[in-house]
Amino acid sequence: MIKKGIRRQIVLHYFFVVFLALLLAEVVFLFAMRTYYYDTIYRHIELHADYVSDLTQPLRMPGQSLNANMINNFKIERTLLEVLDEQGNVIINSSGFESKRKIQTSDVAQALTGGTGRWVGKQSGTGQQVMAVSKKLSGISGDEVYILRYVTSLQAVNDRIFYITLLSISVGAAVLTIVLIFSIGLANSIVRPLNDITEVSAQMAKGKFDVRITGNYRHELGELASTLNYMAQEVVHTNQVKDDFISSISHELRTPLTSIKGWSETLNSGGFDPDETKIGMQIISKETDRLIGLVEEILDFSKLQSNEMKLVMGSVDLRELLQEIMLNVWAKAELKKIKLSLDVEERPYLVHGDGNRLKQVFLNIVDNAVKFSHESSSIYITIRKEDQQMAVSIQDTGIGISEEHLHKVRDRFFQVDHQNGGTGLGLAISQQFVERHGGELLMNSVLGQGTTVTVKLPALEEPSGTTDISEAEPAQQPN
C-alpha cells in the first residue's frame, strides 16, 4: 500500500485515467463485436428469406399449399423454420413436431407490416437466447398470408463473445498492471527529487545555509533546485552584508559618541577659556548632526522598505535645486580644492516630484562625487531634456568604480571602501526615491578615471509662452 502523499496521488490519478480509457475502449469494442456478430447472423437469414420469397410461386398457383418438402427446401442449417398464419399460429415447422404455440413476438408484427422482422430474446420453454427473423409471404391473389419465421440459437455466438470479453479483460488487466508499475516509477522520479529538495530546505529553515541541493534535475524541478540554491547563496551574502553593516555602523556611531562623551566630560570638569569651550561645543554639535544624519538615513530606508514613505509632490525646478546643493557642498569641496561646475541654461527645468527627497538624492550623489574625487579635480553637473524626461548628470574625475563593484554599489549596505565610513544605504535610498518618482538612476564608471551618475525624471510641461525664469511657475523649495 502506497502511503499518502504526492506519490500516491500521481499513481492513483494516472491509474484512474488509464482505467477509464480502457473501460471505455472495452465497452465500445465489446458492443461493436456483439453488434457485428448479431448483424452478420441477421443479414444471412434475411438474404435467405428474400431468396425463399422468390421461390414461393407455387403458393400462388391453384391447388398448391405448403408441405413438408417445401419446408425442407426453405430451411437453414442449425436454424428452426416455422410457418405462421396471419394470427401467429404455427402451421408447420422444420422440426417435424406439431406445435400448437401462438407466436406473438415483435418480429411477427414487423413482418405483417411488410418488412423483415427481427427479435432477440429468450425462447419460452428452453430459456435459451435466440434470434428470430420473420418475413411475410402471400398466397393466391394475396388472400392467404404466411409468415416464414427462422429461429436460431445465439449460444455459440454468446460463448464466442464471452471468450473475447475475457480475453479483452485479461489484456486490459495486463495493461493496467504495466501502467501501475510505470506510474510508480514515474511518481518516484518526481517524488525522490522533491524529498531531497524538502530535506535540504528543512536544513535551510534551521539556518544551515551552507547546504546545497545536488543532482542534475531537469525542467521545473531543476529550476526549483536552482532557485533554492540561489536563495541560500543570497541569504549568506545578505547575512555577510548585514554583519559588515552592523560592524560599520557600530564604528560610525561609536566615533561621534566618543567625541561627544569626551568633550562633554572635559567641559564638565571646567577650567577652560571661552575659545576652548567654543571649540568643544562645535565638535559636539557637528558630531551630533552626524549621528542624526546616520539615524535618519536608516529610518528613511526602513520606511521605504515597508512602503511607509510618503512623497509630497509638486513642481520642482532642477536648476534651482542643484544650485542650492552646490552651496551645501561648497565648503567640503573647497577643502579638497575641487571645482564644482553647473552647466545649464537660464531657464526652468521643471519636474513633478518631492523637492525634499530629490534634494536628498542629488545631495547624496554630489557628496559622493566630492568624497571620492582627487584634490584639485573637477565635478561637472549638467541638465538636458531628452524627449519627455529631464536628465541630470553628475560627472567626476575621481577614483572610479571597478566593473566588479559597479552593479553592486546600489545594493543596500554595500560599500566599496569601508574605511570611508557611511552606512552603505545612500545610493540604495536614492535609487528607490528616483524609482518612486517614475525615473531611473544610471551609473557609468571607469576605475581610475571617474564616475558619471545620471538621474532621469519625467519632465513637467512648461507653461505656454514662458520665455523668462521670472515668468515660470515657482518651484517648490526644499526645506
From TrEMBL:
Pfam families: HAMP, HATPase_c, HisKA. Residues 188-240 form the HAMP domain. Its EC number is 2.7.13.3. It is an enzyme of class 2 (transferase). GO terms for molecular function: kinase activity. It catalyses: ATP + protein L-histidine = ADP + protein N-phospho-L-histidine. InterPro entries: HAMP_dom, HATPase_C_sf, HATPase_dom, His_kinase_dom, HisK_dim/P_dom, HisK_dim/P_sf, Sig_transdc_His_kin-like_C. Gene3D superfamilies: 1.10.287.130, 6.10.340.10, Histidine kinase-like ATPase, C-terminal domain. SMART domains: HAMP (SM00304), HATPase_c (SM00387), HisKA (SM00388). PROSITE patterns: HAMP (PS50885), HIS_KIN (PS50109). It is a multi-pass membrane protein. It is found in: Cell membrane. Keywords: ATP-binding, Cell membrane, Kinase, Membrane, Nucleotide-binding, Phosphoprotein, Transferase, Transmembrane, Transmembrane helix, Two-component regulatory system. Residues 248-461 form the Histidine kinase domain. The chain crosses the membrane at residues 12-33, 161-187. This is histidine kinase.
